[in-house]
Amino acid sequence: MDGSRRWAALAVLLVAEAMNLLDTTIVQVAAPAVYAELGGSAGTISFYTAGYTLPFALFLITGGRLGDVIGRRRTFRLGVTGFVVASALCAAATTPAFLLVFRVLQGTFAALVIPQTIGLIRVLFDGPARARALGTIGPVMGLAAVSGPVLGGLLTHAWSWRAVFLVNVPLGLAVLVASGLLVEDRAATRPRLDLTGTALVALGAGLVVYPLLTHWNGYLVAAGVVTLAVFVVHQRVRGNLIERSLFRDGGFPAALVTSLLFFAVMTGLTQVMVLWLQLTENVDVRTAGLTLLPWSCGLAVSSLVAGQWLVPRYGTRILYTGVGLLTVGVIGLIFLRPVLVPLGVAGLGTGLFTVPFFTAALDRVRPAETGSASGLLNAVQQLGGTVGVSVLTAVFLASGLTAACWTAVALVVAAGVAAAGRLA
Predict the structure, then answer these.
(1) Res 43 pLDDT > 80
(2) Contacts of 266 (CB under 8 A, 6+ apart)
(3) What is the DSSP letter of 368?
(4) DSSP conformation class of 245
(5) pTM, whole model, 2 decimals?
């Protein structure tokens, strides 16, 4: 395959990735409008996000394995097709229950798409070109996540909340048409699907996260922890959902913990800012979305600078600069008004973190570990988003913006500590 065709194929993968990750946050700013039209309880607002991110997280590892088994291009096409159909059903929903069911379907099919990206990039590129191609993943993931509320606000204001789902239909169809640029690839030795492991991790994570979204229930959380412990034992004894070689040293586990904490802040704080703007500051949906624009712009600029100049010159240790700037930005949200400047600083920090983080995390992955590593890393990111939305929203509703921001600061600092000495 010639060079231009390879980069065009990369563009197809990145558009699909952005489309799936955009739906993590695009509904956040539209959720109050959904609530106003469809009704239901106020607690449903958080479920509109978590109903997508939780199944997205839980089935990513299985999605990566499925690509190993039946082929990554085939799995990619299956996932995009299902995602388009589920998006259309979300736009047509007439009750909160139906919308939540269709959001779960969206998340499940998204979990088939995202893990194929790294594997297909490894087939399309080699040498320095592969490093550059892999370096595009972090900025696309981060930018898609923080751009969601901006786009969601504009679409909801201009048309309806249903437009935030309908936008996926033409994008998804275009990706399917262009997917012929991709090459088929699968693992040399096909692993079996670990359905028992998938069921255990889904049940355990669900039991832990559900009380965070509704009312705290220690018994459910304890049951979830026990179930996850059984999952770990199952993986050590006979499971193959996760490649055990990924845990041969502390590097990849450190990447997982760092990803969980960092993306909990990035996704959860976005939800908090949207709620604060609309519920406390009484701004309209368009203004709420546009207020977050400095965050998106800061991330875009710093991602470009980091990828093109800073990481090649200074290495992955610049991720600590990102942690520091994000911390300063979040603290600024407590003390400065308007919030545009601290949001911009937080965006700069996010971009300076994501590029070196994914470069460092993926550099440790061997070809045979690609499916499992990709699914696991993305799963933890989405699980972090689910936990972040749950925890930070609960803190905000109970104690206000200041308490939510200090909680976010603690999580960011913990992410920096988790990365120290292992990733950069």
Answers:
(1) no
(2) 142, 145, 146, 350, 385, 388
(3) G
(4) G
(5) 0.83
